[in-house]
Amino acid sequence: MTETRRIETSPVVIEGMLEYEVKEPGKMRLSVYKENGELVRDVFKDVEIAHTGVTSFNFKGKVKGWDEGGYEVKVFINEKMIHFMPFEV
To answer: Which pTM does this prediction carry?
Structure first.
């Protein structure tokens, strides 16, 4: 809230390189969690991954209205977490 009591919301850009190794094919899910473990949103869900090996891509998004604090991007294959990356808002 500003000094004039106006609510101010500005988007925050989150970006980073996600790199992880897929050891078995299956369904991939990429989700964002608060640091307390609460699910914020599924970015990708039930994406069929048919290959194994190292995968990397740039992760970039804008968030608006999120509470300040710690968050994590988590990558799952067949509901088993294979990678996570913490970030702050």
So the answer is: 0.81
